[in-house]
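Q: Structure tokens for this one, please.
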Amino acid sequence: MSLKLTPFNKAYVVIPPIFNPTFCTNMLSLRYPPQNITPSLESIHLSRNYSSRYVVVCGLKGPRPRYPRVWKTQKKIGTISKSRKLVDCIKELSNVKEEVYGALDSFIAWDLEFPLITVKKALKTLENEKEWKRIIQVTKWMLSKGQGRTMGSYFMLMNALGEEDRLEEAEELWTRLFSEHLESTPRMFFDKMIGIYYTREMHDKMFDVFADMEELGLRPTTSIVKNVGAVFRKLGMMDKYEKLNQKYPPPKWEFRYIKGKRVKVRTKQSDDSSDENDVDDLNEQGESNDSDNEHDVQPDGLQDEEDNSTKFME
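A: Here is the predicted structure, written as tokens:
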């Protein structure tokens, strides 16, 4: 029995002349030529006389095609852009309490939790823009929701009340915080209240706050000592002014944070005092030099007069 080889695009298939399934399964073989086979799969068309199921086709398949994703993700709104949107929404409103509170409630209506970070960033933006009325409104609304009850929020509210000349509300807030916390009241609250009283020349209340500070054992800041000392000098209490400076002398050094590192820096007062001492030394040196020059000039003048007299006699 003879076999017939039929070429099919670089692959040879052995096909028997007589149809016999057992013979086909045993005698069917495949040979590859020495040439490289292209990676693409080539289609083979057989004649109608032979069935395609008895033909073995070998071809290398390429990588599985990857299709791009059909869906698109929406960009999430961050806290910075959301706080900016809150600030823009508030600025367009009037000063009516119901309108402002209603707009703020509608702004957070779809939030599962209270957006405390967003509101804090919005308050910081309003503080930089010196929108004190809006700070008071937003802070009171936030506190009414039971959120953000921190010393930073109360201090920002007190500062805004002082800037808006709402002294009664600032005093009420101060007395409530001082009575509740007392020994744990931060020093910056004393500094702020003394500054408010100092600008309005309310000396008695300023002395009361300073006395409370000394009773608690809190060391006053340089600004507090400066304001109280200025009032003592203005009222003619020089003995108290001297005692104050002796008890709380101005510091020569202070610590500042530069690029995250704590650095010891010389204060301005010490620099000014050193500059004044340098100026005094220079003045003394200048006076001594002037006196020396005067002593040197007198003999020269006498010599000139003698020379002129001799010339005149000649």
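A few notes: The beta strands are 4-7, 12-15, 30-31, 253-258, 261-266. Residues 241 and 247 are 10 Å apart (CA to CA).
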